[in-house]
Here is the input.
Amino acid sequence: MKEKNNHETLLFFYLHSDLLEEIWNEYKRQPNRVRAIHLLDFTLDSFPIYEDVSKMLPNVIGKVKSPEIPSENGGEYELKKLKLSIRISAELSAAGERKTQSKLASKKQSHLNTKYFWELQKEFLSEKNGKMRDLLEENAQNVIRFNNELELQLIEHYGFNYRKKISIDVL
Here is the structure.
C-alpha cells in the first residue's frame, strides 16, 4: 500500500470531519439504530486519521502513550499547544469491534463486544437514554470538538486555511 502524502491526509481529515458533523446532525434530528451505528463508525474512524496526522505533524498532534489505555482501542491523542486530549471509551470501542470481529476472535473478547453492541441496540428499541447511548453522544461531541480545535491548530501551523487550499486544488 502506498504511503499517503500530506495533501491526501489533510483532505481525508477535512472530508471525514465534515461527514461526521453531518451524521451527528442527522442523528440528533431523528435518533435511531442505523444512525447510531453510522455515528459510532465515524467516531471510531477518527482515530486512525489522528494517527496519520500525528505522523505528518508531530509538533501539532501526538499520540499519548499510557499503560492503562490499550492501543487497540484507538489510543489517546493530544493537541500539543492546547494540552487537549481525546480518547474513545472502551465500551464504544468494543461495540464497534462487534461488527468487524471474526469467528476466530477469543470467546471472552467476543462476548464483551457483543454485550456492548446489543446494549446500545436495546436502548434504541426501548427508546430510553441509557449508558451506551449517552457514551456514544458524549464521545461523538468530543470528537467533533477535537476536530474543530485541530482545524484551528492546522491553520495556525500552516499560516493559512489548508481546507481552502485543498478546495482550490481540487477545482
Summary: Helices lie at 6-29, 33-56, 90-100, 107-125, 131-158, 162-170.
